[in-house]
Amino acid sequence: MLSTRTVPPTFTYRPNFITAEEEERLLAKVASAPQPKWTTLKNRRLQNWGATPIAAKNNVALPEKLPDWLAPLADRIAAEVDSAFVFDGTKYGIMPHLDGPAYRPTVATVSLGEYCILEFYKRRNLDEVMVTGEHDDADSQTIRPTPDFRFLIQPRSLVMLQDEMYEGYLHGIGETWEDRQNSRVSLTFRVAAKVSKLNLFGKKR
Ligand SMILES: O=C(O)CCC(=O)C(=O)O
Ligand SMILES: [Fe+2]
To answer: I want to staple 51 with a disulfide (CB 3.0 to 4.6 A). Which of 120, 149, 187, 192 is the partner?
Structure first.
């Protein structure tokens, strides 16, 4: 961390939020998901569970339950969490971005397997990229500015970005050049801002 004084209070870091046994169970569940559940991005792949805001539908999400292996963890974070993304592999980092308005301004991330360096950049103007959970590393050739602050995020920890940290700062993950023992898997939990009253079959709930 470069400076504690400038970090807004809406950043939360809880080391050892889950136990090593829970971490192992979650990693096994992620690994056993059926192949079509994975979407491959440039530098990582993702699984989406629960509500997914659909950009083409003005970010309205279809209601969908979290699976049994994610729901208890989501409940421990907040009762209303309805959306989870699983990311695998961040060796090449993630460009600074905002998670965007499709979700309420809180994101909670549980890290598994490996550490990462989470970097924050104060948002300078309102035109800066707005991207949602599926954004990827499209412009990874861009030179990164120096972050305003950065944190070492350990596996099994919980990170929460809320309000000012969610909306007033871009976040990204630094590239890691050294060979690593493990790949990093992250579980990001959010609450969709707008959920449709229709279920998956187009019928009213
Ligand atoms: O993997 C992480 O810790 C965060 C990923 C992220 O920022 C995102 O997918 O929006
Ligand atoms: Fe993000």
So the answer is: 192
